[in-house]
Amino acid sequence: SQQGEEDPQALSIQEGENATMNCSYKTSINNLQWYRQNSGRGLVHLILIRSNEREKHSGRLRVTLDTSKKSSSLLITASRAADTASYFCATGIGNQFYFGTGTSLTVIP
Amino acid sequence: NAGVTQTPKFRVLKTGQSMTLLCAQDMNHEYMYWYRQDPGMGLRLIHYSVGEGTTAKGEVPDGYNVSRLKKQNFLLGLESAAPSQTSVYFCASSKQGATVYNEQFFGPGTRLTVL
Fold this sequence. Notes:
The complex is a heterodimer of chains A (109) and B (115). Chain A has 109 residues and is mainly beta. Chain A is built from no helices and 11 strands. In chain B, 0% of the residues lie in helices and 50% in strands. Chain B has strands at residues 4-7, 10-13, 19-25, 31-38, 42-49, 56-57, 64-67, 73-78, 87-94, 105-106, 110-114.
């Protein structure tokens, strides 16, 4: 499987703290995306980083990509209770997207 | 715009029964996908379509069939349901494929239980 792996599987932090989650993948990619899934809902796209980019920002989100290590990280700064969700990385290869196993983030008010 | 919708939201089947899940999108997207999500497994691609009248196998296609007769609809069929097909099924669409820098839009999911 070309599926990615997120680390950690679960993360619990206090509101206002930063949350960092990591994604490792196995093969060369065109791009890497991060999605959020609230409990019982579908996935929502957060941010996309191209294979030739190393860092990207969007609001409180910061994504890095290291293609030599086949890894990416998602940083959420100044977390809020509303950030409580599962976060997935997805790698774009050919016509398909391959999703990781997810990180469950709990932000405690 | 409704985005991506899925019908039904919940379904319980007995082993051996058949059913069809309907996905519809109103964004004029070319690409559509069916995933299943199981605990601890992330999302796995079942089948996908790169345009009207086309379908292709994903990572876990066995036991499923699909059809894309209209651009806006993508149907997922289970011919003879098995307990191993108990899962949450998500449909997604995108303007273009994964080689282009575009996102997927997901439906709310269908929770299927096979007894």
